[in-house]
């Protein structure tokens, strides 16, 4: 693929330019469910769950294979930092790392996500020493599914509190449940009061909070 060749060329260029001054990380890769939606069309993917489940699984398998090829090719180029690699969220891990995402899980139930897509997210995560799955705060109905397995190693939640009805306060119980099982990365805009609530209500162990901008209360 000329696109993969270009990606790897760009990755090598970043490695050379970094000169060890910063860590090169995996590019933004959309996960299997997102790739299937992009290939088939969003509505067509949802209909295929019922109209052609066998064909849908074949497409998911294809997308997973392509994802892994790209992720492994980047990993082979990226230099280790003290034996480990940083996630795209800036968190270091003592081994190989992969980040995936399942944004389009917002359009399927937790049951359908678990049946058709979760096994492939697990396959991606199992292929690396450490893994993190990216979610959005407005669509956390799949959290219980992601907590059923050892993989992913961690869950990252981007706050959509301005575009969805869920406030940081509403999300605290979900965050607590995640932290009982896995590390949690929380990123996004929040007020000083919301940040204080997160730090007061959530255990420090396994918690990473990143907010570039603190909105006024």
Describe this structure in words.
The structure is a single chain. With 217 residues, the chain is of the alpha/beta class. The protein is built from 9 helices and 7 strands. The strands form 2 sheets. It has a 5-stranded parallel sheet with strand order 3-4-5-6-7. A two-stranded antiparallel ribbon has the order 1-2. Strand 4, helix 7 (143-146) and strand 5 form a beta-alpha-beta unit. Helix 2 (32-40) packs across helix 3 (42-51), helix 2 (32-40) crosses helix 4 and helix 8 runs parallel beside helix 9 (192-201). The protein is globular. The termini are far apart. The model has no long low-confidence stretch (mean pLDDT 93).
Offer a concise description of the structure:
This protein has 217 residues and is α/β, with parallel strands linked by helices.
Helix-strand blueprint:
Elements: H1 2-18, H2 32-40, H3 42-51, H4 53-77, E1 85-86, E2 92-93, E3 97-101, H5 110-116, H6 118-126, E4 130-136, H7 143-146, E5 154-158, H8 168-179, E6 184-187, H9 192-201, E7 207-210
Helix pairs in contact: 1-4, 2-3, 2-4, 4-6, 8-9
The pLDDT mean sits at 93
Q: How does the helix and strand content classify structurally?
A: alpha/beta
Number of strands: 7
Task: Name the beta content range.
Answer: 5-15%
Helix share bin: 40-55%
Low-confidence stretches: none
The count of helical stretches stands at 9
Strand count, sense and barrel status of the largest sheet are:
5 strands, parallel
Strand arrangement within the widest β-sheet reads 3-4-5-6-7
How would you spell out the order of helices and strands?
HHHHEEEHHEHEHEHE
Radius of gyration: 18 Å
State the shape: globular
Amino-to-carboxy terminus distance: 49 Å
């Amino acid at each position: 693929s000329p696109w993969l060749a270009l990606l790897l060329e760009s990755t090598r260029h970043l490695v050379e330019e970094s000169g060890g001054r910063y860590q090169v990380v995996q590019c933004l890769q959309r996960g299997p469910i997102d790739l299937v939606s992009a290939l088939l069309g969003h509505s067509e993917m949802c209909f295929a769950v019922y109209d052609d489940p066998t064909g849908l699984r074949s497409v998911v398998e294809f997308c997973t294979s392509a994802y892994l090829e790209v992720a492994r090719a980047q990993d082979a180029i990226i230099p280790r930092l003290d034996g480990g690699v940083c996630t795209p969220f800036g968190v270091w891990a003592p081994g190989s790392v992969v980040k995936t995402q399942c944004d389009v899980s917002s359009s399927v139930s937790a049951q359908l996500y678990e049946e058709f897509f979760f096994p492939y997210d697990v396959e991606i995560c199992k292929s690396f020493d450490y893994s993190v799955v990216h979610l959005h705060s407005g669509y956390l109905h799949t959290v219980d599914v992601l907590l059923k397995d050892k993989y992913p190693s961690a869950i990252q939640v981007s706050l959509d509190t301005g575009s969805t009805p869920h406030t940081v306060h509403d999300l605290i119980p979900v965050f607590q449940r995640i932290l009982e099982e896995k590390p949690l990365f929380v990123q996004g805009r929040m007020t000083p009061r919301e940040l204080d609530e997160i730090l007061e209500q959530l255990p420090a162990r396994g918690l990473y909070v990143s907010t570039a901008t603190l909105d006024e209360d």
